[in-house]
Write a structure and sequence with these properties.
By secondary structure, the chain is an all-alpha fold. Helices cover 57% and strands 2% of the residues. A hairpin with a 5-residue loop joins strand 1 and strand 2.
Length: 198
Amino acid sequence: MSVNLTLLIVMGVLYSVGVYLVLERSLTRVLLGVMLLTNATNLLIIHAAGLPGLAPLYSSDIDPQNYTDPLPQALVLTAIVIGLGVTAFLLGLIYRSWVLSRRDVISDDAEDRRVAKQSAYVEEEDAELPEDTSEFDDEQLEAHERENEKRHHREQDAAGDDPSGGEGRGSQSSFAGSGPAPADETGNRTDDDGEVRR
């Protein structure tokens, strides 16, 4: 594959001028820069396709290496259509900017200027935190966990979880409320639900 030096120089100039124009504040110059970048990329794709050859129409008499690769040309056609769409969009932005403000230069917002003047260091957000931010140390936390475990075991023992099969304290408490309820001063008796029986 031979290198076409003239085409490479033209591509370099188009890329450099396009990048310079895109970085300007004028929307018209941005539009021109985008168009130059699009054309430089199209030239790059065409150059990457290699030397021109025969049309890619199949014939058994022609060596396949003599054909031109059709894919780069299809990519360039697609890129041209996309470039026209981007150009139309930017033209719409430029027109709307001209209608609203009678200029196509992008100006800084007042809030942008205020933020740009601020220091990069904000003490409230960027201050370093101390390593130990807990109010308890490890020994206090372990002691607290041991107390919780002991309390849990005491509550299980008090609930009557006796492995002896229900005899003893648990069985006595189950028979304690089985008789009739005692009468109060008026002679009425109450159920477990709190209803008065006579």
